[in-house]
Design goal:
The structure is a single chain. With 407 residues, the protein is of the alpha+beta class. Helix content is 23%, strand content 27%. The protein folds into five domains: 87 residues, no CATH class; 65 residues, wza like domain (wza like fold); 78 residues, 2-Layer Sandwich (wza like fold); 91 residues, Outer membrane lipoprotein wza domain like (Outer membrane lipoprotein wza fold like), CATH 3.10.560; 49 residues. It has a seven-stranded mixed beta sheet. The chain has a three-stranded antiparallel beta sheet with strand order 13-7-16. A three-stranded antiparallel beta sheet has the order 9-8-12, covered by helices on one side. The longest helix is centred in the last third of the chain and has 36 residues. It starts with a helix and ends in a 10-residue tail after the last strand. The N terminus is likely disordered.
Length: 407
């Protein structure tokens, strides 16, 4: 494993910056192996696994070898270590960004005492000596007007708004004494559900400032955090209002990680398609999302992988014919978030388009001139006589016929 690390560093800058957005610690389906680390200094002298070093090659890129190009050197990367169709890597823990959507569920929300009951709360009442035909044993929701309904036998509605559970219990016992014997007027009251659950439970959009809103409980900053970290942050924030809160967090919609397919239309512009990244796509998958190659596309395709400023170009050439016609996987790379898949246009079509742009104005000018000249000559030679507009027959003007009438 120690000999593998420097070789991975050689390919490191080809994906390190992208995976840093997700976190660290990618794992493969096989034995764990380090991925994408190191600096430009590591690219100059790479251990060869036998005690010596391999000096990075100089000169421009050629062939199908991935390379990193920090000026003034071009340094080939170890293609075998890059994730491809048959040796994909799993992404690190997902980090949430705007505009992802979180699904938050409240497992336990008990308000800090002394809690005053409010509308939409749910109370649990139990009166062991209540009538069997109308028992008091179950949840009683607090209506919007701040009351609970005990039933007609026990006097109907009872106002509980802005009262503590202890105060409500005393009111319930006093109400039962009007119907039951004093020694049978026994009741217990507890808070079954707080309306705070309705403020927290559900889907929450990560806003542009990186926060999610929890209703009356305020907002929590979640951008750049993983799901376990978000859970801790929300519970720590709610602990100011809730006794030992417990929530669960999941991602409902992954909206912040994308890659791009850029198609060059051979001098007629470039089309950019943004595709959400699921972490499992390859080059062939990316091309299938845009319907394959356009009529003016060439077979020259590469992946431009982003990296920090000053580290140079990071290019992964793609053998399109090998992937599609022979089923080879050596260049069917796994697409990472932020990658740019570039499809070059046909050089012949690009030249033709360039020539057409130069000659088209001249053709219009010459066409207009020729049309004007032909029109003038037609009028001059043919006139507007009996032959009409265009009295030219075979290039010879037809003389008008004179008819003498004898009287």
């Amino acid at each position: 494993m120690s000999r593998l690390v420097p070789r991975v560093r050689l390919a490191g800058l080809a994906a390190g910056a992208v995976l840093a957005a997700f976190g660290s610690g990618c794992q493969t389906s096989g034995p764990p192996r380090p991925l994408f680390g190191g600096s430009l200094a590591d690219l100059n002298n790479v251990p060869d696994g036998g005690g010596g070093t391999v000096t990075a090659n100089r000169g421009p890129f050629s062939g199908q070898t991935p390379y990193v190009r920090p000026a003034p050197k071009s340094e080939p990367a170890d293609n075998s270590l890059l994730p491809k169709e048959l040796n994909k890597v799993t992404m690190p823990a997902y980090t949430v960004e705007a505009p992802d959507i979180l699904l938050i569920d409240a497992q336990r929300l008990i308000p800090l005492p002394p809690y005053k009951v409010e509308p939409l709360d749910v109370l649990y009442l139990f009166a062991p000596k209540a009538y069997e035909r109308e028992p008091i044993n179950g949840p009683y929701p607090v209506d919007p007007d701040g009351t609970i309904n005990l039933g007609a036998t026990y006097g109907g509605s009872l106002r509980v708004n802005d009262l503590t559970v202890t105060e409500i219990e005393k009111l319930v016992i006093e109400r039962l004494k009007k119907t039951l014997k004093p020694e049978e007027a026994i009741a217990t009251v507890s808070l079954a559900q707080s309306r705070g659950v309705q403020q927290i439970r559900g889907e929450h959009l990560v806003q542009p400032d990186g926060t999610v809103s929890l209703g009356l409980y305020g907002s929590v900053f979640v951008a750049g955090l993983s799901k376990p970290q978000i859970k801790q942050a929300i519970e720590a924030h709610l602990s100011r209002f809730i006794y030992r809160p417990e929530v669960s967090v999941d991602v409902s919609a992954y909206n912040s990680k994308y890659y791009y397919v850029i198609t060059d239309f051979a001098g007629s512009g470039e089309q950019v398609v943004r595709i959400p990244s699921t972490g499992n796509e390859t080059v062939l998958d990316a091309m299938s999302f845009i319907g394959g190659l356009s009529p003016v596309s060439s077979k020259r395709i590469w992946i431009a992988r982003p990296a920090p400023a000053g580290t140079g170009d990071q290019i992964l050439p793609v053998d399109w014919r090998g992937i599609t016609r022979r089923g080879t996987t050596s260049t069917n790379y796994q697409i990472l978030p932020g990658d740019r898949v570039f499809v070059m246009g046909s050089p012949a079509v690009k030249v033709d388009t360039a020539i057409g742009r130069v000659t088209a104005p001249l053709e219009r000018v010459l066409g207009t001139t020729l049309f004007g000249y032909t029109t003038v000559r037609t009028i001059q030679t043919g006139g507007l006589g009996l032959g009409g507009f265009g009295g030219v027959n075979g290039g010879t003007a037809v003389a008008p016929t004179v008819v003498n009438v004898a009287r």
